[in-house]
Design a protein that fits this description.
The chain is mostly helical. The chain contains six helices and four strands; from the N terminus they run αααααββαββ.
Amino acid sequence: MKADPFVQARLLDLQALDTRLQQIDHARTRVPQIAATREAQERLQQVSDDVVRVETGLSDIRREVDRAEADVQQVRDRTARNTSRLESGQGTAKDLQALQHELESLARRQAELEDVEIEVMERQESAEARLRELTAQRDEVQAEVDALVRDRDAAVAELDAERVEVAGPRQAIVDAIDAPLVALYERIREGSGGLAAAELKHGRCGGCRLELNPVDLAAIDKAPSDEVVRCEECARILVRTHAADG
């Protein structure tokens, strides 16, 4: 393949630009806030799940409290009615005695139900305290996530802006290089991790960093200046410059 030496030299400009674009793309996936945001979002999801779990449990406890209060109130109402009847003195002695026994039974039942009510209310109080704690924690983590997202987006936007700026002149450089040479460059770049063209400097390939053997260097020295030469070790395009001495 033939190409004007000046055109070949433009490959180094294109390679430098593509290398920087590759670095920007890599940096974009390694923005520190990305991992930190992901971690914070996982913590937010966990504490949010805990909030839902405690809210669900608290809802069940509140229904227990309502039932316990209703049970106690029912006994209190029955006690009040029996007390009123007993105090009125209406009825036979046997009836009044039965009322007295029932009042004693109701008192024991009320005490038992009130103990249940107290226990359930204590669980409610504990669950409400836990919910307040988790809600505050969730709000704190949410604020952390929001801040990280802002920082992440700003960092990514900065890299995106740099990419646009760096990529701007790429097409003009490509247009200045012969199409077959560009096709060769792109093919090599795709299969070599992004580095397709390198300077031959002081007998060393700028791609694989290996020194060329004397036979290969002699062949390159004899090659016409417009001939596109490649490294025998890594197959990258070698661009000969004024520093390409053996």
